[in-house]
Amino acid sequence: SSDIALLPVALYVLWFLSEWAVESPSPAEETIRDRGSRQAIVAVRDTSLMATAVYCWYLDITGNLYWAFGGSVLFLLGLAIRLKSIATLGGNFSMSLTTKNAERWALVTDGIYARIRHPGYVALYLIFLSWPLAARAWPVAIAVGVLAAIALWWRITLEESDLAKRFGSEYEHYQATVPAFFPSFGRPRLVGGKGR
Question: What is the DSSP code string of 43-73?
Answer without folding.
Answer: HHHHHHHHHHHHHHHHTTPPP-HHHHHHHHH
